[in-house]
Write a structure and sequence with these properties.
Layout (H helix, E strand, L loop, with lengths): L5 H25 L5 H11 L4 H23 L1
Helix pairs in contact: 1-3
């Protein structure tokens, strides 16, 4: 079992925090696409890219749609 150094652990933690901040920023930006026309525009842009490239965006949009549906039904 390899031993991690304190420096490598700190670097890993820094990268994970930065990635989390980037995901939260992306989620906030995507939440601005509310109207059907805006969502259609976003879908057209995403349609130009592969499923691999859009996987993170698709996951965020799916979570947001589920959350919106839950809030509307409550």
């Amino acid at each position: 079992m390899p031993f991690a150094t304190i420096t490598s652990l700190r670097s890993s933690l820094t990268r994970r925090r930065a990635a989390g901040a980037a995901r939260r920023r992306l989620a906030r930006e995507l939440s601005c696409y509310r109207t059907p026309a805006e969502r259609l525009e976003l879908d057209l842009v995403l349609g130009r890219h592969s499923a691999e490239e859009t996987a993170e965006v698709d996951a965020i949009l799916s979570r947001q749609a589920t959350s919106d549906l839950y809030r509307r039904s409550a």
